[in-house]
Amino acid sequence: xxxxxxxxxxxxxxxxxxxxxxxxxxxxxxxxxxxxxxxxxxxxxxxxxxxxxxxxxxxxxxxxxxxxxxxxxxxxxxxxxxxxxxxxxxxxxxxxxxxxxxxxxxxxxxxxxxxxxxxxxxx
Length: 123
What we know:
24% helix
């Protein structure tokens, strides 16, 4: 099945669930859905918050005149079910300005040495 067909099915299921009274705080999806324009725009149409995975080589096209900002890396502990933990690193990437088009992404990594390089415009 193509991604568009899957996005249509998921959108129909979410609409059906809403009709039955189910409410979602957030939708979580893997990169197959996260990289589907049809799927993420269906979530926009349904006015749902979402967190989706995208691959590191995923391309984001910005409208003319918009900017991309990389914020500082932060460390957090990933706690596993059995109680152990391991450090992870996260930073926010903002596409667009405060007004108009704005999309936020978060980069995550486990490697403290090979974090993606800081880029111009990082804080």
